[in-house]
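Usage

Read records sequentially. Each one opens with the input sequence:
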Amino acid sequence: MEEDSNSLLTNLLEDAEKAKESDVPIEISEATPTTGEDQSQSQSQSQFPLTNETVVQEWTRGEKQPPQCRDMPYAIFFLAQFCSVAIYGTISFSSFAQAVGSAPQGNHDDDDDGNQVLHDLSLSAIATVVTTILFLLLSFVVLTRFGKAFITCSLWTSIAFATLLAAAAFATGAVFVGVLCAINAVIGCCYAIAVKKRIPFAAANLNAGVSAIKVNMGVVLISLCSGLILFVWMILWSTSLVGITGAKQVCTDKDADDNLYYGQKDQCSLDVPHSGWVFPWVFFLFWTQQVVSNVIHTTVAGIVSTWYFVPADANGCFSPAVRDSTKRSLTSSFGSICFGSLLVAIIQLLDFIVQTLRRNGRNGDRQQGGAAALLLCCLDCILRLLQDVMEYFNKWAFIYVGVYGYDYLTAGKNVMSLFTHRGWTVVINDNLVRRALMFMSFTVAVFSAMVSLLFVHFDDKSFAGASFTSNFGIALILSFTMMSIIDSSVSTVIVCFGEAPDELEANHQTHNREMREAWNEVYPMVRF
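and closes with the structure output:
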């Protein structure tokens, strides 16, 4: 991925150098909507010769699509599996609850102590949620006012961490691990130096993305509700999987005297009579997770695009932009979201099958041959690479779905053509913003978990450790949810700025000035 970024950057800079020799900058004009013959003619001209006159690149801007349900068969198929799993899971859950309720209960002398521990853990979790919210509000200030410094800090912090790991590995005699960590640190240094000039533009995009979310905070509540729905559905999915496969634990009943004599214990194993149902159920899980995540991403894209083009409709917690974008994502665009998510889920299922074969080969009575093991390893790597590529493609395709309401295939074609013609692929490949947001998520989670322990006193230190671990998980989920929303917002700003830079100047002058100044620092010979 980095090699593609470097080659595209080289091509763009070569064009800039040619323009520099002729003392004429490359000017990128605002996209203008055209249709028919003009559109096909414009899309066929991907490169323009540099002459002694200013070069203007024309681009066909996307158009708002009429409200119409697209890719409906995929939405119907998804809703069918989603509801089927939920219904069957509810029935199975009721059966399990009755079985547990009828089981004999033992005597518990430590109920009071257990209730006290549960009370302390609950209080610590509540404190974690409150402190996480406060730290996230503080992170908005850091990301908007100190974006450049924070992005730089996230780069060099990872380098410092890799260096410390290398030193620790060498000190403990793990030379191979130390060499890998040292190589990682060196590569990180080279990368940080190479992208140093691009940090101001990434910070300007980050500032605009955070500003769009700050005035439309209702999307955060929608994201949390979606996460809660997914959590409940996953519980029902688990119970339905146990029910449909008939999975149960089988233990060998040995004689107590024999156990004493031979020093043996009862052995238990998991019996799955209908194991074939595991694979479709795993596919349903992958698909549902992808759909829920992409619904939020598409909703954010619609909200931010409204903030970009019509700021008056995107200026409130539950502004018209929030309501309309959520409605479109769950109705007219839902089929397109299910379609794109389906492709990723299929790849995930294939990778799950390959991993299952590898695991069975290692744990079976007969070890896999070297050729078979190598083939499965290669298939695993290829499928993971394909998954990353598809998720990366979907990220930008769903922005077009959320902004204009295109079907999935048209959205993917338009967004890739946009960046190919504009020469913006190098900007997409920059992971500066995502790296900074991941670093912020981890930082918020650590500090929130530590601060929450100050509100609760545990007599048993082991409970304090368990509380910190659970609190860290809660804070990490909340912070990652927020930062993923900001990441979607920043990506949408990049797309909108690439399509209509003049709209930003008309509606958000401060952000427009920051982004143009930062762009001119990186590519002074390429103007808008």
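Summary fields computed downstream for this record:
- The mean pLDDT is 79.
- The beta strands are 26-28, 55-57, 248-251, 268-271, 526-527.
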